[in-house]
């Protein structure tokens, strides 16, 4: 409707003009607006925008419509002509911004404007206002060093000096069609700019001229800022507020489109706060609960903003920090600090992410404390804690704090009481033994503390870690003693004992002497008393042994028997490495034979030796393959076992001996060394024997050579023609058809006549063979020369004796025939065709020889 109205006004104005020109009337009823004046034309190069400002010279023209024309080049080619709604500036001014698809530096741009309203005809056009392009003295390209938007369309131009023609434009080495802008300027249009793949993320623009000159510039591509997402604010101390957000798409490290983040607290007087990419912190305002904040992000390609409102009391996330973690044996004391002035907090504490302890805490009264119980000794743990102000929003968990509980070490405490000569004075000797379990079995005490309270006063005595007793003088009053071991990691559980008052009628210990026992140990028993409420204590020592320490054992209430096992003795500790030879092994071990914790007295050591094998017997076996070595002195802790085999694997068992037998053994497997001297003797003996044989054979080398020659060398003078033999075998294989597989039956008959032959030689002939004529003269009958003293392996040359002898050979060749029912004619033909000479004889010998040949059939055998 607006365009229709404007068109109607224009037509009406033309009508009035023509009416005025021809009729000379209407001048008193229609009037024309004055010509607008363009006051400013500002170019914003990085945005390729022209900002036009103009003035209307008549107050009644306010609120009308403005028509703007924009042209390019010296020919004033109109590229834009539209009616626009301009922004009012002052009482008679207007302002409007136009964005060009072509960089403003490429060519000159001209702008003019006119104004009209509903009551008048359009005003005359204002004069053209020019924005000059670049006047190049050399090839210049635009845009230059500018930040371009990823995915946008862009136009690039080359401005040459006068007389130079642009022939080629490339962007990132890709050539585009040229667009003429005026007489000299050339441009290219690129759609959908993409983020460069090179390291520094730039686009290279190159222009080539007809003169051969080429120049290049670079521009950059990036993406505009994104609106912050998931904006939220929270406080951990009520003194500062931290806002965080998701900035969106991550920028490349070499992206030159640097962004700025600014936080505005709208309902306060706080100045804008510069922020990091993801967060911003500002001070809270006392007594202000409601906050309205806005995060603004800007860069060369645009601006985005996001707002957030909150009540600070609802956005409290307490931050806890560990103060200390002090482990014990089965418990641990923990404390942590809460940042800020927060009260009435609820905290959660976990140990190994399993058990959760919930407790109330106040951050203004010092660290929050808790004692975690029911832990295991010598165990690794990890603990975390977090807190909440309202039970709904919880702060972050602290980093896991590892700790290890101390080993479980207890003291077995006893005493001896001696009445001194001074009145009402007693000497108390405190005795203790350290008991440990698990990984604490190797734990040693650095020191011991003995503490007691005579007459309400606290007294403490420190003893060395190697001492296990302390002497203290007390009066007639009751006295409580506490002994504690100081370990390398923590301390033991304190042991307590009470010394009664002197005037109390205590039951004196009942002595009993034991002179013998059984293999299991010593059996003790006593009459049960009515008074004891905490059980009994049995103490014992070896009679006649001045260095034997006092030993004791606590018996729970209700028991009046005790077995002191003789074999409950710990095993020795072997010292490695062990010294070995090819026939002996020297063992060393460590053992505390005077340890008062032994329930039996050590009298020596037993070393058992056995060979390692599939049926290996346990230590201290009485089998034949086991022998024992005893050490009678309990203070001697080494022995050498001799008479062993070389390179043999043995198991050695060492145990402490008591009166009733060996204790728990400790074992080690050792392989004896190899006796290289004996091996060397065997090698030398064999070498000498071999040399002796070689010497003896060398002396008889001629005889040995002759014997070997007779056995292995082929006889001289025997001529076998290998090619003819091979040809014969091949022809035989071709002519003999396939046969059914059956057992090969053959027999050779050789008849040797040692007398001189008759006038007509006697021969055996096959009837079929006799009727077969040789078709080839080369298949002459075979001459068999009789040999005196013939044997099958004789190699005597044929026909070398003057007196001829006759030999007749007959061979069963039934295995050549394919079937039993074959005709004799076939067999005869096959036999005759196979006859070939196999020896070469002189002509003289062949003339006096008679062919003798025949076969014996299966039927005659």
TrEMBL record:
The chain crosses the membrane at residues 680-699. It comes from the Eukaryota. Residues 227-319, 571-677 form the Fibronectin type-III domain. InterPro entries: FN3_dom, LIF-R-like_Ig-like, LIFR_D2. The keyword Hydrolase does not apply. Keywords: Membrane, Receptor, Transmembrane, Transmembrane helix. This is Leukemia inhibitory factor receptor-like isoform X2. It comes from Solea senegalensis (Senegalese sole).
């Amino acid at each position: 409707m607006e365009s229709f109205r404007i068109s109607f006004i224009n037509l009406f104005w033309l009508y009035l003009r023509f009416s005025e020109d021809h009729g000379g009337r209407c001048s008193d009823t229609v009037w024309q607006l004055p010509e607008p004046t363009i006051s400013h034309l500002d170019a914003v190069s990085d945005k390729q925008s022209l900002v036009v400002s103009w003035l209307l010279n008549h107050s009644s023209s306010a609120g009308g419509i403005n028509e703007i024309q924009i042209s390019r080049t010296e020919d004033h080619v109109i590229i834009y002509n539209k009616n626009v709604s301009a922004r009012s500036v002052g009482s008679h001014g207007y302002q409007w911004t136009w964005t060009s698809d072509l960089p403003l530096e490429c060519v000159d741009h001209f702008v003019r404007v006119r104004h009209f309203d509903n009551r008048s005809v359009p005003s005359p056009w204002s004069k053209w206002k020019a924005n000059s392009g670049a006047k190049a003295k050399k090839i210049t390209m635009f845009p230059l060093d500018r930040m371009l938007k990823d995915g946008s369309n862009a136009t690039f131009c080359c401005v040459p000096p006068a007389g130079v023609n642009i022939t080629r434009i490339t962007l990132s080495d890709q050539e585009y069609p040229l667009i003429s802008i005026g007489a000299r300027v050339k441009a290219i249009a690129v759609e959908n700019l993409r983020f460069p793949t090179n390291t520094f993320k730039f686009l290279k623009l190159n222009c080539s001229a007809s003169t051969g000159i080429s120049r290049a510039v670079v521009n950059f591509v990036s993406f505009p800022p994104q609106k912050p997402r998931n904006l939220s604010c929270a406080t951990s101390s009520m003194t500062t507020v931290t806002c965080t957000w998701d900035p969106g798409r991550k920028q490349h490290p070499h992206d030159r489109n640097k962004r700025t983040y600014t936080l505005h607290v709208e309902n306060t007087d706080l100045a804008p706060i510069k922020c990091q990419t993801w967060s911003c912190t500002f001070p809270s305002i006392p007594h202000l609960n409601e906050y309205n904040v806005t995060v603004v992000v800007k860069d060369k390609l645009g601006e985005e903003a996001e707002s957030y409102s909150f009540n600070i009391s609802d956005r409290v996330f307490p931050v806890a920090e560990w103060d200390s973690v002090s482990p014990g044996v089965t418990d641990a004391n923990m404390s942590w600090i809460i940042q800020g002035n927060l009260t009435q907090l609820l905290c959660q504490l976990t140990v190994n992410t399993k058990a959760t302890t919930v407790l109330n805490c106040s951050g203004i009264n010092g660290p929050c404390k808790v004692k975690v119980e029911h832990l295991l000794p010598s165990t690794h743990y990890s603990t975390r804690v977090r807190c909440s102000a309202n039970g709904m929003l919880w702060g972050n968990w602290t980093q896991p704090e590892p700790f290890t509980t101390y080993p479980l070490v207890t003291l077995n405490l006893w005493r001896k009481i001696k009445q001194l000569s001074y009145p009402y004075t007693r000497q108390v000797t405190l005795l203790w033994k350290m008991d440990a379990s698990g990984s604490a079995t190797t734990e040693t005490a650095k020191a011991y503390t003995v503490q007691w309270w005579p007459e309400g006063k606290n007294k403490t005595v420190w003893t060395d870690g190697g001492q296990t007793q302390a002497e203290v003088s007390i009066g007639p009053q009751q006295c409580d003693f506490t002994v504690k071991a100081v370990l390398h990691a923590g301390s033991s559980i304190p042991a307590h004992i009470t010394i009664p008052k002197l005037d109390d009628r205590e039951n004196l210990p009942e002595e009993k002497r034991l002179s013998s026992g059984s293999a299991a140990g010593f059996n003790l028993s006593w009459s049960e008393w009515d008074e004891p409420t905490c059980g009994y204590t049995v103490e014992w020592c070896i009679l006649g042994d001045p260095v034997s320490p006092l030993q004791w054992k606590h018996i729970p209430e209700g028991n009046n028997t005790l077995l002191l096992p003789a074999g409950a003795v710990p095993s020795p500790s072997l010292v490695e490495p062990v010294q070995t030879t090819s026939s002996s092994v020297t063992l060393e071990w460590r053992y505390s034979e005077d340890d008062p914790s032994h329930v039996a007295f050590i009298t020596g050591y037993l070393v058992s030796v056995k060979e390692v094998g599939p049926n290996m017997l346990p230590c201290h076996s009485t089998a034949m393959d086991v022998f024992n070595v005893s050490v009678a002195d309990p203070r001697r802790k080494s022995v050498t076992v001799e008479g062993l085999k070389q390179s043999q694997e043995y198991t050695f068992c060492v145990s402490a001996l008591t009166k009733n037998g060996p204790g728990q053994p400790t074992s080690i497997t050792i392989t004896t060394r190899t006796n290289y001297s004996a091996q060397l003797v065997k090698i030398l003996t064999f070498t000498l024997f071999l040399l002796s044989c070689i010497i003896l054979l060398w002396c008889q080398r001629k005889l040995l050579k002759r014997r070997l020659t007779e056995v292995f060398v082929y006889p001289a003078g025997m001529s076998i023609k290998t090619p003819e033999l091979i040809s014969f075998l091949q022809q035989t294989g071709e002519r003999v058809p396939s046969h059914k597989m059956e057992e090969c039956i053959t027999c050779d008959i050789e008849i040797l006549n040692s007398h001189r032959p008759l006038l007509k030689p006697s021969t055996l002939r096959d009837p079929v063979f006799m009727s077969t004529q040789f078709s080839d003269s080369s298949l002459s009958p075979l001459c068999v020369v009789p040999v005196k003293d013939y044997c099958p392996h004789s190699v005597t040359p044929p026909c070398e004796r003057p007196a001829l002898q006759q030999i007749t050979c007959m061979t069963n060749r039934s295995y050549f025939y394919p079937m039993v029912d074959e005709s004799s004619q076939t067999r005869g033909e096959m036999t005759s065709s196979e006859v070939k000479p196999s020896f070469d004889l002189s002509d003289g010998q062949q003339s006096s020889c008679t062919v003798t040949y025949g076969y014996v059939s299966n039927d005659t055998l």
